[in-house]
Amino acid sequence: MEIVEKFSFLVLPLILLVASFIILLGKKKDYFSSFLKGATDGATSAVKLLPTMCALIVGVSMFTGSGISDFIAHILSPFFDKIGVPSEIFPLILTRPISGSASLATFGEILSSNGPDSYASLCASIIMASTDTVIYVICIYFSASRIKHTRHALPIALFISILSIFLSCILARLFF
Amino acid sequence: MLGKCFSIFCISSIIYSLICGNLKDLCDSILKGASKSVTVVISIIGFMAFWNGIMEVLKSSGAIARLSKLLKPILKHVFPKSFKENVATEEITACISASVLGLSNATTPLALSAIEKMNATRKSNKATNDMVTLSILGCACFNLIPTTIIAMRVSQGASITYEIIVPVWICSFVCMVVGIILSRIVGKISGDC
Questions:
Q1: In angstroms, rounded to a whole number, what is the distance separating the alpha carbons of residues A160 and B52?
Q2: In this model, does residue A102 exceed pLDDT 90?
Q3: Residue in B closest to A31 by C-alpha
Q4: Which ipTM score applies to this complex?
Q5: How confident is the model at residue B177 (pLDDT cuts 50, 70, 90)?
Q6: Is there a single domain that holds both residue A69 and residue A146?
Q7: Structural domain total, chain A
Q8: Substitution target from B132, B176, B185 for chain A, most A beta carbons within 10 A
Q9: Which of A36, B17, B20, B24 is most exposed by smallest CB count within 10 Å?
Q10: How far apart are CA A60 and CA A23, in angstroms?
Q11: Is the Cβ pair A102, B156 closer than 8 Å?
């Protein structure tokens, strides 16, 4: 696992190294101004998240604060435990296929209430990073071209997102 | 969709608290949630700005175009019909490269124009096999660095940060391959539209 760890820390510096050389040696144009333009876009899209995050984090923290999520988790936990999925990530499983910002809010809530290095948080991190919001993606992709029959797209996408939940939990146990 | 999520969360928690009588906890969680959203967003602004800036440098220097060229021989087998008829191949490769690099803002518009181009010569409102494959790749695409997730973990004081990259790669790679294989098998059995 140590090699894996070292390798993980190499990816970002390597990309940064390539980008730095481009900024230093690129003659076609001023690449630092491209950096500034991209950074402005990134900051803007992060700020644009605030209104949605505000509503949904309140929603999710009510869901956990009122005790209803514990109640649901308590009902489901024998089943979830049997398949190795921690019941704390249940709200994430609900929101992940539907909305990116809702699941990001749920994810933040899981991190802060369970501690970011807990098993549940690690599973949640892998789930968040490895699959996208499947229902949302399929709606957006096909609605623009007015395609109504998406055929096998949705069943396969849902299957993948379930697969990613199991796989994430297995990998979290294997790696950490 | 978001509105429904939000109201279901609110209604179910309020009803549950009324039944259990823990309204104080509920009120606390509303206040805490609202202020927490600001902390979460502020803590990820810096990293999102930085990463987006670096990606913009790579994009404007043509690194993404080069990556597209590398991916083309592989994608030929994933989208056989589009590459045979040479329809929307530029968009497909650019879309996949952008999502590998985590440029989520660029991925969706590219995918939309790819599907639009594939649909331009047809009258049917049914998705073709290649469209289905593309949408599944959009759902489970291999992502080089999960920036937002790492930024959120760091902001919450995690000690395991970049180490999640390798399990994430394994997970999304397996999901992606399974998705492509399933999509191709089902597409072959049901025939193309």
A1: 28
A2: no
A3: B57
A4: 0.78
A5: very high
A6: yes
A7: 2
A8: B132
A9: B24
A10: 43
A11: no
B147, B47 Cβ separation under 8 angstroms: yes
Q: Judge if A21 and A64 occupy the same domain.
A: no
| Beta carbons of A60 and B10 less than 8 Å apart | no
Q: Test A66 with B170 for CB contact under 8 angstroms.
A: no
Residue A141 CB partners (closer than 8 Å, separation 6+): B108, B111, B112, B115, B131, B134, B135, B138
On the CB side of B15, how many CA atoms lie within 13 Å of its CA?
7
Q: Distance from B73 to chain A by nearest Cα, in Å?
A: 23
Residues of B in contact with A57 (CB under 8 A): 33-34, 36-37, 40
Q: Where residue B180 falls among pLDDT bands split at 50, 70, 90?
A: very high
Per the structure, the complete domain to which residue A7 belongs is given by: 1-48
A65, A146: one domain: yes
B-chain residues within 8 Å CB-CB of A124? none
What are the residue ranges of helices labelled H in chain A? 2-25, 31-48, 50-65, 68-82, 90-95, 100-114, 119-130, 134-143, 153-175
Burial status of residue A83 (CB atoms within 10 A of its CB: 0-12, 13-18, 19 or more) = exposed
Distance CA B100, CA B92 (A): 12
Instruction: Kindly determine whether residue B53 and residue A108, on different chains, have CB atoms separated by under 8 Å.
Output: no
What are the tokens at B36?
A: 């927490």
Q: Which of the four pLDDT bands, split at 50, 70 and 90, describes residue A53?
A: confident
Domain boundaries, chain B: 32-190
Q: Hey, what are B152's tokens?
A: 């959120």
Nearest chain B Cα distance for residue A99, angstroms: 7
Buried (b) or exposed (e) across B87-116, using 16+ Cβ within 10 A?
A: bbbbbbbbbbbbbbbbbbebbbebbbbbbe
